[in-house]
């Protein structure tokens, strides 16, 4: 017998590769925003009083929760805040998925879901997306211990809310379990299910500041849901770590929310660059999904996705490729600045010899 027999062993989630400091690359592999946060955030950071750091932050994330509640038109106790949406999702898995029945989610989706299920010993089952990477609604009308839907989905970029009833039908058909809608990318042209949380007490909508608010390095995520859901989430959070959100995160998060104009302008810019990149790739024979996110999901026709991934990397452009069934013919490419995307297309042309 060794102490190692008692280790909680897991196969961890693998995030996109981070370049070493000072390395000059075009980084299109982790869906970060190519633009900085709002100038209001720079001002708030300059004005931040470092002497306040001796005091613990608000355990209930009070002022940021209030600002989020105001911004989205909900009450303080209908909002939960965490250290990025990964923290919110992990807490939600631990809180709501406590059944012997399997939690269900698509076979192709955010690859952290099965990792949380494994680490918390939650049984789960995946349901195949159809050939166009859409969910099959009837697959989610079965007995289950919970449902997770990334909408728009990653890494496909595909949204299910063009049919507004899609998520509502699933939520309404499953009153016995909690449905988590992970809307990490919804600001880039998706349709949010957040209003449905007023009607259904089993829907939790999870959002993040990491993408559309250019805050990946600050780590702010939040959830909107019925008061009872939020209370249960907070009970679990307070049972692990009371002070999850640090003082700078609370203050800078509020500053970010105060600048809607900048938010809209930068998100719009990403969406128009995305359309340009999709058109360019399609004209070169790539299959590309109709992305409602800040990345494009593209399959080359004249070269394997793996080879293109490696050759782009040699040329200092990082994109994401997975050696997994149904994914290995595809690349996920985050939308960068116009200039970065022009360089990407130029390098693709040079690799493909046109
Ligand atoms: N959900 C999805 C679908 C994602 O792609 C990501 C980003 N990796 C997250 C959640 C988590 O992002 P964050 O923790 O930065 O909010």
Tell me the Rg in angstroms: 21 Å
Annotation, overall tally of beta strands = 12
Please, how many helices? 10
Give the topology string: H per helix, E per strand: EHHEHEHEEHEEEHHHEEHEEH
Question: Which sequence of strands runs across the widest sheet?
Answer: 2-8-7-6-5-3-4
CATH topology of the largest domain: Aspartate Aminotransferase, domain 2
Mean pLDDT: 96
* CATH 4th-level superfamily of the largest domain: Type I PLP-dependent aspartate aminotransferase-like (Major domain)
Q: Given the C-alpha coordinates, what overall shape results?
A: globular
How many domains would you count in the coordinates?
2
Give the amount of beta strand, in percent. 5-15%
- Contiguous low-pLDDT stretches (5 residues minimum) are none
How does CATH name the architecture of the largest domain? 3-Layer(aba) Sandwich
Structural class: alpha/beta
Largest sheet: 7 strands, mixed
Termini separation comes to 62 Å
Please bin the fraction of helical residues.
Answer: 25-40%
CATH class of the largest domain: Alpha Beta
The small molecules bound here are:
4'-deoxy-4'-aminopyridoxal-5'-phosphate
């Amino acid at each position: 017998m060794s102490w190692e027999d008692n280790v909680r062993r897991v196969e961890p989630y693998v995030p996109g590769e981070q370049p070493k400091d000072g390395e000059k690359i075009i980084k299109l592999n982790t869906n970060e925003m190519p633009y900085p946060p709002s100038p209001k955030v720079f001002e708030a950071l300059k004005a931040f009083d470092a002497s306040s750091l001796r005091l613990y932050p608000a355990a209930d994330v009070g002022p940021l929760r209030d600002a989020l509640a105001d911004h989205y038109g909900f009450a303080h106790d209908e909002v939960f805040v965490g250290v990025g949406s990964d923290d919110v999702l992990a807490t939600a898995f631990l809180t709501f998925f406590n059944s012997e029945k399997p939690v269900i989610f698509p076979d192709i989706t955010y690859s952290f879901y099965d990792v949380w299920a494994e680490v918390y010993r939650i049984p789960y089952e995946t349901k195949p997306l159809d050939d166009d990477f859409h969910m099959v609604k009837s697959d989610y009308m079965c007995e289950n211990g919970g449902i997770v839907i990334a909408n728009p989905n990653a890494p496909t970029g595909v949204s299910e809310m063009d049919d507004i009833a899609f998520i509502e039908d699933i939520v309404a058909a499953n009153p016995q379990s909690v449905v988590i809608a992970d809307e990490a990318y919804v600001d880039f042209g998706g349709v949010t299910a957040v209003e449905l949380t007023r009607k259904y007490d089993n829907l939790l909508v999870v959002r993040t500041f990491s993408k559309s608010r250019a805050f990946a390095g600050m780590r702010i995520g939040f959830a909107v849901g019925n008061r009872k859901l939020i209370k249960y989430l907070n009970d679990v959070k307070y049972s692990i770590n009371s002070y999850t959100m640090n003082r700078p995160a609370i203050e800078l998060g509020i500053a970010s929310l105060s600048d809607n104009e900048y938010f809209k302008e930068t998100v719009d810019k990403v969406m128009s660059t995305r359309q340009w990149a999709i058109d360019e790739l399609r004209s070169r024979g790539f299959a590309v999904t109709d992305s409602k996110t800040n990345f494009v999901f593209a399959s080359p026709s004249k070269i394997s996705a793996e080879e293109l991934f490696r050759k782009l990397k040699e040329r200092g452009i990082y994109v994401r490729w997975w050696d997994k069934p149904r994914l290995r013919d595809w690349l996920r490419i985050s939308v960068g600045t116009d200039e970065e995307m022009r360089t990407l297309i130029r390098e693709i042309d040079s690799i493909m010899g046109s």
